[in-house]
UniProtKB/TrEMBL annotation:
Location of the SDH C-terminal domain: 248-278
Top-rank taxon: Bacteria
Task of the protein: Involved in the biosynthesis of the chorismate, which leads to the biosynthesis of aromatic amino acids. Catalyzes the reversible NADPH linked reduction of 3-dehydroshikimate (DHSA) to yield shikimate (SA).
Residue stretches making up the Quinate/shikimate 5-dehydrogenase/glutamyl-tRNA reductase domain: 121-199
Active-site residues, as the UniProt record annotates them: K72
Record key words, sorted: Amino-acid biosynthesis, Aromatic amino acid biosynthesis, NADP, Oxidoreductase
Homology family: Belongs to the shikimate dehydrogenase family.
Pathway assigned to this chain's UniProt record: Metabolic intermediate biosynthesis; chorismate biosynthesis; chorismate from D-erythrose 4-phosphate and phosphoenolpyruvate: step 4/7
Residue ranges constituting the Shikimate dehydrogenase substrate binding N-terminal domain according to the UniProt record: 25-95
Name of the protein described by the UniProt record: Shikimate dehydrogenase (NADP(+))
Gene: aroE
Residues engaged in binding shikimate: S68, N93, D108, Q255
Length: 285
């Protein structure tokens, strides 16, 4: 009589379009590395099918799933509870299913913070954050919760930046203000960390956010959320000026680590996951 089990733990992702989402390759590489009998299924879920997909995951006893665009806000009514940051951010990208209860979390900002902590302590730091979309919102809230001193949010549409600044001021101990993005943004001398949270640079190694390059001084930490290509032009210019560059792969990898900790209570090897992404995106300059 065989004692082999033929039932894998199920995790995955609901989004659309999703054919270019590499998370499955990253997480399944780590499941294999740790000999964990689990699968991560990348599912194309159209907006009208989200409710059925969530019900299906629950019915099939998935332990959790990521949800990406366009479901990060729409999924909330189907959940039983939200983590503190998901509640403040108003968006969920990671759902844990335990004893039939669904809890929503947001790992975008947490993944970024975990990556940032590899090079700097965010507590008390002064941050300049470029962009005011979903990634910027999650990062700003987590920075505030982590005790960052001050965040200046720079965006073409300053009203969007002010909405995020108010979230930080009202729901965290952090301070924040909005600034309109006109011409080239200069990084003030007292800023410790510059973060590009715009989509500029995605899939285009020559694109760069309009920042005065002579304000990128030695010692400044320059982080980019763009995972593809990992060495964006902003990071290359920053490195050439003596700044500490931080690429968007770390944010993606740490989101995977945090998600699986929530689902399986196991910590995956971040190095294995990063190498899986580098095989896909390339690691070079
Ligand atoms: P959104 O579409 O919500 O926001 C995009 C932001 O970029 C907006 O603030 C927009 O400004 C700004 N922007 C776009 N083009 C320009 C431009 N030419 N000049 C100035 N500002 C510009 O996107 P998300 O926040 O969801 O995602 C942003 C990026 O983050 C994506 O490229 C995504 O790949 C990356 N990301 C990476 C993750 C990772 O794990 N590494 C995780 C999540 C996202 P405006 O408001 O004025 O239009």
């Amino acid at each position: 009589m065989s004692d082999r089990r033929f039932l894998s733990i199920l995790t995955g992702s609901f989004s659309t379009p999703c054919a270019d989402n590499p998370t499955v390759a990253m997480i399944e590489a780590a499941y294999r590395h740790h000999d964990i009998d689990a699968r991560y299924i990348n599912c194309d879920v159209k907006p009208g099918n989200l409710a059925d997909a969530v019900r299906g995951a629950k019915a099939m006893e998935w332990v959790g799933f990521n949800c990406s665009l366009p479901h990060k806000v729409a999924v909330i009514p189907y959940l039983d509870a939200l983590s503190e940051s998901a509640r403040i951010i108003g968006a969920v990208n990671c759902v844990t299913i335990r004893d039939g209860r669904l809890t929503g979390d947001n790992t975008d900002g947490k993944g970024f913070l975990a990556s940032l902590r590899e090079v700097a302590d965010p507590r008390g730091a002064k941050v300049m954050l470029l962009g005011a979309g979903g990634a910027a919102r999650a990062i700003a809230v987590e920075l505030g919760l982590a005790g960052t001193g001050h965040v200046t949010i720079v965006n073409r549409d300053p009203a969007k930046a002010e909405t995020i600044a108010a979230l930080v001021r009202d729901h965290t101990r952090g301070d924040a203000r909005a600034m309109p993005w006109e011409g080239e943004a200069r990084v003030p001398e007292d800023v410790d960390i510059l973060i590009n949270a715009t989509s500029i640079g995605l899939g285009d190694r020559d694109a760069i956010p309009p920042v005065a390059l002579d304000s990128l001084r030695k010692g400044l930490i320059v982080a980019d959320v763009i995972p593809n290509p990992p060495k964006t032009r902003l990071l290359r210019e920053a490195k050439a000026r003596g700044c500490t560059p931080l690429d968007g792969l770390g944010m993606l990898v740490n989101q995977g680590v945090i998600g699986v900790e929530l689902w399986l209570e196991k910590t995956l090897d971040a190095g294995v996951m990063k190498r899986a992404l580098q095989d896909i995106f390339g690691a070079g300059d």
